Each structure stands twice: as structure tokens, then as C-alpha cells.
Amino acid sequence: MHHCYDAQIFTWKNPNLAQDSISNKDSLLASKINKDFYTRDTLNYIKVQKPILYDEEVLAKTYRKKSLEQLNAKGSVIRGITFGNNQGSSMQSSMDMQISGKLSDNVSILASLSDHNLPIQADGYTQSLQEFDKIYLQLNIKNSTILRAGHLDLNDYTSYFSKYQRRSMGLQAETIWGKEGIKNSAMLAMGIARSEFQRMKFQGIEGNQGPYRLTGKNGELFITIISGSEQVYIDGVLMKRGENQDYIINYNTGEVTFTSFRPIYRQNFINISYNYTNRNYSRYLATAAVSHENEKFRIKLDAFWENDAKSNPLSQNLTQEDILALENAGNNPGKMYAPSGEKTEYDVNKILYTLKQGASGAYYEYSTQKDDVLYQVNFTYFGQNLGDYQIKQTSNNGRIFEYVGEGLGDYKAVKRLVAPTSTQVFSVSSEYKLHEGKIGTDLSLSNYDANLFSSLENRENLGYAARFYAEKKFQKGSWEIIPMVEYQRIDKQFTVLDRINSVDFWRDFNLENEFSHRTQNRFIFSVLNKLKNSTLNYTFNYLDEVKYYKGVKNDFELSWNTRKWSNYAKISFLKTESTDLNTQFLRANFHSELLGRKGSWAIGGAAEHNTKDYHQLQQLDNGSYRWNEIFLQKKIGDSLRQKFLAKLYFRNNDSVRNGQLTKVNHILGLQTEAQIINTSNTQLSAQLHYRKFFYFNNSHQPNKEDFLIGNISYSQNFFNQGMRVQAFYELGNGQEAQREFQYIKVTDGQGVYKWTDYNGDGVQQLDEFEIAEYQDLAQYIRIYTNTVRYLSSNKNKLQAALYLNPALIFDSENTFLQRWNFTLSALSQNSYFKGNKTIEWNPFKKDQNQILKVQNILFSANFTPKEIVGWSANYKYLQSQNLINANFSTEDLQRENHTVNLNYSFNPNLRAEWSNSYIETENSSQLFSARNYLLSQWETRPKLNYNFTEALQAGIGFAYKNIDRKDGIEQLKTSEIMGSLQWERVKTSLRAQFSFINNSFSGNSFSIVGNQMLEGLKPGKNQVWSIIMQQAINSFLNLNLNYEGRNSESRTIHIGSVQVRASF
Q: How many whole angstroms from its chain centre is CA 254?
């Protein structure tokens, strides 16, 4: 037995590849063809830890294309069963299939079918295993009708009052028809909703790139986001996902992190919409739309239904008492709670409580006594000092709570009840085109029931919304004037599916939310003036929330351009009155740019002054603020190929102190972006942003907020590409999540980890779980618990790669020189406690304040053969370190590996191999002393391979390994004799392997260190064997038989499996 330690080698791809486009905008197929289609759905992100039975080394992938006229299909279907005397039987199934082409001259098909229930490792908060599947089928009929089935993305952004974004499993049909000048369309979709929709807004933290955690609409703190469903806005601008774009997202943990290309400041307002997988009931979803359009008139009718099946809860097991509580709660979420304690039998692997009586009543107390009357209790977080319980400690089975007194804790012994809901929205929109103008209307009716179990407050279910608008263009010479008038009314009981206005509408009008279920009246009047290269736009807004809020907003926007100058200015003033606050919000920004032949100079500024005054208290709300900023900017290069930008700015920030606006700090900032070199052999670019804070009150400074964020990217080819260098270096600030995890049991053989009861107490402890060496031992997976703490951090990252080919460097035809090549690659990614430090430069620094470290350094020298007979060799050096921060402690694994491989081919049929390695492994755990060890290992492994015929090959080898524990008494000396046999025919393949292993072990073998050294085997004599047979039944069907076994001096383990694979 031996390990192979992998390293990471880095390459970069050009993200700016040109994309194809389709110009036929009238084709329904063309309008949908640019959508992304995925072979697999990423509803749950899955990591497959172990390969399935099919051996890719014996038989190459048999994906084949078959043509039925113009129909192409490729993919595979796998079904298998695994059984053994050390595990129960388990089934494996997998399907991947893609179909495209034409069924006839008028009908084409596009399909993607994927279904997996293979062993998985959860990497998030999901505590149940789910099938990983994707089913999508699309038929295109005469370029006018589309039929879809399977997993559907349903979106509508054209309806004014009923915009939505949903995911469902069902059917959808779309069709268009008409004649010249007339276009009609219809759409109908029905299915089962696969997600919940939520929108979250928050303000950025100065210099904190994240991660920022997203939550559910019912207060769920830990959710799983459906991939691709998110839309991220910063200050109203849509961001792009990607490591070389604006943000990245962890869909499993629901966390968004912004890259160094998009620094985050305190004044940034972030708005994110997303779908997540928390489904409380079976939910049925249907949407429909019908539209008609001609040269003068268009009309569209939309319908949206979303209904929970209250008789079919999914994530809740509702009792009659729970249902009664929901019936009496009406639409009030504050009443939707029920006692959570349930009587249960004693179980050593469960956290159980007994009921005690105190002066203030009954409470639960943690108990491990079998004779107690025991309860399994769920605790719900209510907020600081709003509960009765606190977390006492955390074990592998979960968190243990302690009663601390009424109103002194953060949790209550109740469970939150989620009520089934029903949503219906019907809309009609119409527009009539006038000469150089238009008039239109949007009408919508909603019916929302917040609790289907209760008939209370049902009179509040119905709501309506209406919008009327008109626009007209007048022109005289080169002067255009376009006035527009609009009126909206939204009833307080109207239900908004997604949003109606722009994402920053709530901020533009100093509202808590876009719509807070108060009747809104809004009047808009605007005049747009255009004269040659200049525009002037004035907009008047009046917004009234009946009996609560009135706001008047005026906006002026001016742009003026000449051959050498580009000028822009915008000013906005809002004044509001409400029952508790009067606000005034002034915003302005301007810039003026002098254009030159090779660049430009620009000067500009911006300011915001937002006061929110409690008119009864005569003091300002803490949300009041004031800032102003001026900048000077230099660009070199044109607008299409900008090569350099430098921006220097100065900023003043004022915020509320003691009820009044007070000067807080100045900020001096420098921002640079440069494409320094861009040739066929060299690319060098850099980006840097530095902010320096100067505080007015030196006696009251928070932690140092100065920050530096940026990156440098370098790629170079030397000596006719004989030497290639790539590097990427990044600096930044953010926060690291410190999580707890626990292990849950799954079907035998379908996990990743094994549990060994080292201390014999029958209780699962975190330090008793290890990665399983054999499939029959893998019975557990690891998941995060609902406890997380974020630590402010400084971050850096270095990726580098160097490749050398001496023959190309020296342009040599020397055959000896041509056999050599060298590779060096490095990755170092680090997070450090921020404290008062602005930045941490050194990516290789070791520090006791380190939170996270991932480091791999790999060097390899390869001597490759040019002839069938002769020598080949390679040397590899790998240094790796992985520091993780979990369960509120750190664990650090460091490994250093030297490997030398020598090979000699005597003739085409006889080959000798000799592998030698020296490895040092050190593991240190802050929490578990049993996981602290330092191992030194050296191993030699000679092997001889002989090809008797083209169909029959055999190998025999020997290995000797010595492992010493430098900080303990454990020592292992292993002798191994191994043999292999492989026989292949056109349709049949047979592979057999056998190893006889003698482990001479001293020390405690029944320990974490002992298991690490023995690699799952026992001291003394061990045998390990395997037989794999693969039979091609026909051109697309393969049968795979697999038998594995091992035995020691105490027991023999047998594992068998049968698998059938059909490839298309």
C-alpha cells in the first residue's frame, strides 16, 4: 500500500473569448438559444469522493455518437449493486445523456438527462442526502413553438407589477404566430416549485470583501443557493460572477465574496436576489402569458400561481397541536411557534434532556441517564437576552443547551412553524403608439394567503396595483423634447413577487423597503431635452404612502460633449415627511473630462447629505450621514483598449454622534489600473486600490481601517516558448468563517469517513472520525452545523508556474537534451487575523495569528525516453501545508515529499521500475492532543513488468517501508510482495492484483496515529486482493464484475459488486 500525494499546477485561460450571436430576433428559437444549459443541475453541489466501479484505465470511455438521420445522442447509463460481509448491500445508479438534432424536417430536439445517487460528501449545511439529477427536454417545432419538460427556469422581467424568477420541475409550452405586422404569442408552464425566492439588501463593510452570508425569507440562517439564480447589485449596478470578475459565491453555504477587482466600501449598498432550496411544503407553480402586438398596439395578459400543499409538509412533521397553533396564528409570524420537546428512548448518539421544575416553571436540563424520562428538544434563536437558554458546549451529536433563566438567554425551547402559503397574481398591460409618442397602462390583481391553515384575516388577501403613463416627442430642428407623465397606485394588500422598481428605489426615497404594505400613490413627470451632443433631463417624483409617508423628489441630469470635452452632472433632492421621521436627502455628482489623442484628464466629485430627523425628539436618526468626495483622474489609451488609469481622491465622512452630525474622518485614496504589456509573448497587468483614514477624534478610533487591495497578473514566454512563466498575486481584506461540523451516518459504503471508538465509551467524538481507507468502512459524511463566527482578516494569494524545456531554450537537436523538462508550480493562499494591520504582504509567512493557509509547492524534473528501449526517470518534490479553522480551533497538516522514479526498458516486453520516496508528515491540532504527531517515512518499491503477448501482461514487485513517529514510540516496518495480471481481448478485460503485507508495528496500533501509519490494515500478516472483469456484451453494453478482499490474522473481508453500463 502506498499514497500518492497530488499537487496543484496552475494555468490561465482567456476569459474574453468572442461569442457567437444570432441576428434573427423574430425567431423564438433564436431568442432562447443563448441560454445556458447544464448537463447536471447544481441544486446541490456534490463532491464524489470515490470512483464508481467502471475502470477507465482498462476500457476507454465508450461515449459514441449514433445518428438516426440527423439525431445525435451520447452518454451512458450505469446500474450497479455492492455487497459484502462487512457492510450491507447498496445500489449505485448514474445516467448522463445528451440528445440533439432533428426528429423531422420541422422538429428538432435538445435534451440533457442526468441522474446520480452515487456516494457524496456534503459540503454545506444540508443534513440529508438527495439525488443529484437534471432532466431537460426541449422540442422546437417549425421555429415557432417550443415544448420543454424537466427542470425549468421561469423568468418574466417584462411585466411591470409581476416580475418573477423561479425554478420548477414540470412542463412549459411557448408558441408564436401571426402575419406581417402582427405578432401573437402564448406561454403556459406548470410544475412543482424547487426553490424559495428571496431578496436581501445590506450595506458593505469598509474594506471587507466578504464572505457575506445570505439568509432565507423565514429567518433561516443557513441555506443552500441554487446555482446561477443570484443577481448581485452594488449601488444599482449588476455585478458579474467569476474569479476575474466582481464576485464569487459558495452555493452550499450561501456566502458571497467580492474579488479584488471590486473593492467594497462602507458607502456601498448591496442588493442580492436568489433562489434557495429550503422547501417547507410541496409547492405547485403555474405561469401563463398571452400577448398580441401590431404596429400601433400591444397587449399582454399574465398569470402566476404558486400554492403550497398544506397536507404535504416536507421539512416539518406537523402534529395536531402544531396545526392548531397555526390555525390560531392567522397571518402573524410571531405566533407561529410550538413547544419542541418530544419524549424519546435513550440513545447514546443523541443529545437528550429531562424536564425539571423551577421557581419560574418547567425547563429542560441535559441528561445522560438512561432511567430519566427523556426528551429530544429543538431550540430556536430569538436574539440576545430574548430567550431562556444558552449554548453550553458542542459535541459531535450537536449543541448542548443550558437553561439560564427567563430573558437571560438567546434561545427558547420551541420550534418555528412555517405556514403554507398561496400566491396568485394576474396582470394585463397595454400600450398604444401615437405619432412620436405612446400611452399605456398596467393593471394587476393579487391574492395572497399567508397561512392556508387559518381563515383569520383572509379579508386582507386581495390587493391591486395600477399604472398609467404617456410620452410624446416634439422636435424642432436638432432640438428634441420628450415629456413623460406617469401615475401609479399600489394597494397596501398587493403582493410583489420580486420587485417593481429599480433595486435602489427604497434608498432613493428613504424607505425601509420598496413596498411595506402601505398603499402607495406615485406621480412622475419628466422632460428630456436633446440638443446636438447635449442632453438635459428633469424628473419630478411625488410618492405618498397613505397616512404614513409623503416624499417629493427632484432630479436634474446634464451631459454636454464637445470634440475635446465630456461633461456630466446630476443633482437630486428628496424631502419626506412621515409619522416619526422627516428627512432631506441631497445627492450630487459631476465630472469633466478633457479628451486627448492618447488619453484624457478628468476632474470630478460627488456628495451625499442625508438627514433623518425625529421631529418629536429633535434629534437625528443614526442612519443619517454626510460625505463629499473630489477626484483627479488620468487615463492613457483609448476607451476600447485602456492601458492605464490613475485616480486620486479625497473624501470627508460625517456620521451621527450624540444625535448630531459630526465629522468622523477623512479618506485619502489612490486607485490604479494598468495593462502594462500586452504582446503575443508577454502580458502584464495590475490593479491597486489604497485607502488611508485620518480620524478627527484620536481618542475614539476603531480598529485600523486602512486597507490595500489589488492584484498583479503576469505571463511571459521566453526562448521560443522553451521557458514559460505565469503568476498571479492578490492582496485583500475580508473575513473568514469559523465553522463547526459534525458527522452523520449514511448507507454502508456510501460515505467518506469511518468512526473508530478509540476510548471505548460508545460515544462518537470528533477526533474519532477519519477518512476511510476502504469502501466498506465509509459510513459517515461531514456537514457544517448551524454555528458560524466570522473573523476579520487580511488575505493574500500567490499562484505561480514555471516550465523549462532545455532543447527549445538552446534550439538544440541534441537527443539527450530533448529528453529533459522541468516544472515548478506554487500556490499559497492565506488569511491572518486583521487586528490593526492594514495588509499582509508575504504569502509564505508563518504566523500564530493565521486563520487559514493552503500551500503547495511542486518541483519536478523529467527525463523521458525517446526510444522503446532505454532509461527514463523523474524526480518530484512536494511541500504542502493546510491550516483549517473549524470547531473554534485550528488544525495544521504539513507534508514534505521527495520521490525518485527510475525506469528501464530492456526490450518492448520487459520493463523494470524502481520508486523511492521520503516523506515527513506533521499534524498539530489545537483541540485534540491525540491528533498531534510527527511521522518520518521512507519507502522503496522495485517492480518488474513483462508482456507475454499483446493480450497478457504480468507484474511482480516488492516494497519495504519504514515509518517512525518522532514524537512518540510508534514504529512501523512493512514488507510487501505484490503481483498483478492483466488479460485483454476485444470484448473482455480481466485484471487481478494481490499483495502480501507484513506489518511489524510497535506502539499502540489502536489509535489515530496507529491507523494513519497502518493505512487501515492490522499489525502482522495481511493480504489484499482484487479481481476486476469487464465484458462488452455488444457495441454499447458493458458488464463489470468487481471482487475485492483483505484479511488479517483475525478476519477476512469480502466485497463484491456487479455493474452494467450502457454507452450511447
A: 7
What is the end-to-end Cα distance of the chain in Å, rounded?
37
**Residue indicated by cell numbers 499483446:** 950
- Please tell me the predicted confidence (pLDDT) of residue 29: 32
Q: Check residue 913 and give its pLDDT.
A: 94
pLDDT of 36 reads 35
* Structure-block grid coordinates of residue 273: 436576489
Q: Which three cell numbers stand for residue 432?
A: 398604444
Rounded to whole angstroms, how far apart are CA atoms 855 and 797?
Answer: 10
What number of other Cβ atoms are within 10 A of residue 475's Cβ? 11
> And the C-alpha cell for 945?
513488468
**What is the mean pLDDT of each successive set of 10 residues along the chain, which is 1064 residues long?**
36 35 34 34 34 38 46 78 72 77 85 60 40 73 90 90 91 92 94 89 89 86 85 93 90 89 91 87 94 94 94 85 90 89 86 88 90 90 90 77 91 91 96 93 96 89 96 90 96 93 93 92 95 92 94 95 92 94 94 88 95 84 92 79 84 88 90 88 91 74 75 92 93 84 78 85 80 83 75 90 92 86 93 83 85 92 83 94 79 93 92 95 87 93 93 94 92 94 89 94 89 89 92 82 86 86 77
Which residue in 464, 467, 434, 466 sits closest to 447, CA to CA?
464
User: Side chain identity at 81, as an amino acid letter?
Assistant: I
Separation CA 204–CA 215 (nearest Å):
16
User: What pLDDT sits at residue 132?
Assistant: 43
The answer to whether 411 and 378 have CB atoms below 8 angstroms apart is no
Q: How far is CA 243 from CA 225, 981, 993, in A?
A: 18, 46, 44
- Rounded to whole angstroms, the Cα distance separating 145 from 186 reads 10
Grid look-up 421621521 returns 581
pLDDT of residue 747: 76
Vertex 199 angle, CA 197 and 203, to 5°: 160
CA 855 to chain centre: 22
Cα–Cα distance list, 84 to 519, 562, 772 (Å): 67, 82, 16
Of 398, 351, 359, residue with least CA distance to 377: 351
**Contacts for 342 with CB less than 8 Å, ≥ 6 apart:** 375, 376, 377
Nearest to 124 by CA among 8, 45, 195, 185: 45
Q: Which of 491, 318, 535 is nearest to 417 (CA)?
A: 318
**DSSP per residue over 550-569, as a string?**
EEEEEEEEEEEE-SSEEEEE
Element (H, E) at 1012: helix 1008-1014
DSSP state of 504: T
- The count of residues in the chain is 1064
Angstrom distance (rounded) from CA 324 to CA 319: 9
User: Containing H/E element for 818?
Assistant: helix 815-818
Tell me the CA distances in angstroms from 498 to 241, 309, 664, 1057, one per residue in order.
21, 22, 37, 50
Instruction: Give 599's strand partners.
Output: 636
Gap between the Cα atoms of 836 and 46, Å rounded: 39
For the record, the C-alpha cell of 438 comes out as 405612446
Q: Domain coordinates of the chain in residue numbers? A: 198-278, 337-416, 734-1063
**Edge-to-edge order in the sheet of strand 374-376:** 342-344, 374-376, 352-358, 361-367
Q: What is the CATH number of domain 734-1063?
A: 2.40.160
Q: Report the distance separating Cα 974 and Cα 26, nearest Å.
A: 73
From its phi and psi, is residue 236 left (phi > 0), alpha (psi between -120 and 50) or beta? left
Reported pTM: 0.80
